[in-house]
Specification:
Layout lengths: L2 E7 L2 H13 L3 E6 L7 H5 L6 H27 L17 H22 L23 E7 L3 H10 L4 E5 L3
Antiparallel strand pairs: 1-3, 1-4, 2-3
Helix pairs in contact: 3-4
């Protein structure tokens, strides 16, 4: 059974030292919460790159291609109108709508990918029940770590690393 512990630290150097000790002892470091971004902390945690940009690119290009194809099909195949002897397949005429629709679809795909990556909308999180967790936005540095084996061993590692408070996270 996996036990999850939440440790609070007073400064970022202690947090980063505790993170190295947790990983060095074979436990898993799940997440960290700090009042401001800390250089190199995401790399230490092993956080994967965001998928928002690829989702925006795919959403924008796919929608633009669909809009272009729909205009081309309707003007060339489905309802061709000869206007002054101009060719039916003049692609320059069809570029404005795919551009506008592609930009809108990319923005919409970015918002959806952002909400999905943050797991929003979420009305409740078990971390909010930890006493003092709200100080992670002010003056505390919080590390969430998990242990597959003995949670007391992880608690000892966090306490020896300088944690001022260690609380077990109870998931519903």
């Amino acid at each position: 059974m996996t036990s999850t512990l939440v440790a609070q630290f007073l400064d970022p150097e202690t947090l980063q030292g505790a993170l190295q000790r947790v990983k060095g002892t074979g436990h898993a470091a799940l997440d960290a919460f700090t009042p401001y971004p800390i250089e190199g902390l995401a790399e230490q945690l092993g956080v994967a790159r965001s998928r928002i940009r690829p989702a925006m690119l795919i959403g924008g290009l796919a929608t633009a291609a669909f809009a272009f194809g729909l205009q081309w099909y309707s003007a060339v195949i489905d309802y061709p109108i000869d206007s002054g002897g101009r060719p039916l397949n003049s692609w320059q005429v069809f570029l404005l709508v795919p551009f506008e629709v592609g930009v809108f679809a990319a923005a919409l795909a970015g918002v959806i990918a952002f909400l999905r990556s943050c797991r929003l909308p979420r009305l409740h999180d078990a971390l909010f029940e930890i006493p003092g967790f709200e100080r992670a936005t002010q003056d505390r540095y919080v590390l969430v770590a998990a242990s597959e084996a003995d949670p007391n061993d992880l608690r000892t590692v966090l306490t020896e690393a300088g944690a001022v408070a260690v609380t077990e996270l109870r998931l519903p």
